[in-house]
Amino acid sequence: MRKVAIVGCGGSGKSYVARELGKILDSPVTHLDAAFYDDEWSELPKEKFAELQRELVAQPSWVIDGNYNSTLQIRLEACDTVVLMDVSTIAALFGIFSRQIRHGAGHKGNGVHNRIHWGVIKYVATYRRKMRPRVMSKIEQFAAGRAEVVLLANRRQTRSWLRKAAGKHS
Predict the structure, then answer these.
(1) Rounded CA separation 97/111 (Å)
(2) 31 Cβ partners below 8 Å, 6+ apart?
(3) Number of Cβ atoms within 10 Å of the Cβ of 18
């Protein structure tokens, strides 16, 4: 496990898993929200965002968290491991609101990018029905059979998987 793409709904724990896995693997961690948005929440132009990811995945090891379905193929074709944070809608909604309470709004420099508005709530509330099938299709198309695919359905399962990963890489 040297090149890890972490995907899943907002509030699912992607950034937490990325930080922990980065420590375990001693690999650089990139939170795509931090690459895509500046301090004023302006978006990086799409082609620059794709080019940045091509540069990131060319490195010998990395952990990258974020969905960004339009550029997911770049990460899936280059990774050796895909971690899908496959939590329930309720858990993801709880995640975005509890993160807001714990960290406040704005950019925190550790993968935490909080900005709750109706669009974010709607995205999280409909992720399993609308986005998850698209993500699963891309994983099947670009990573399955070549990369290990790990589905983590809840926080307990996530902590257990991270402990096992730490044991393998200590």
Answers:
(1) 16
(2) 15, 18, 65, 66, 110, 111, 113
(3) 26
DSSP 70: G
122 pLDDT more than 50 = yes
Q: How would residue 105 be classed by pLDDT, with cut points 50, 70 and 90?
A: low
DSSP state letter for 44: P
Q: What's residue 111's pLDDT?
A: 47
**Which token pair is 130?**
């609308």
Question: What secondary structure letter does DSSP report for 107?
Answer: E
Residue 39 in this model has a pLDDT that exceeds 80: no
Please give the structure tokens belonging to residue 63.
Answer: 């952990």
Q: Would you say 82 and 17 are in contact if contact means Cβ atoms under 8 Å apart? A: no
CB 86 within 8 A of CB 11: no
3-state helix, strand, coil in the chain (%, to 5): 55, 20, 25
Q: For residue 9, what pLDDT band results from cuts at 50, 70 and 90?
A: very high
**Cα Rg for the chain, rounded, in angstroms?**
15
pTM of the predicted structure, to 2 decimals: 0.86
What is the dihedral sign for C-alpha 155, 87, 144, 17?
Answer: negative
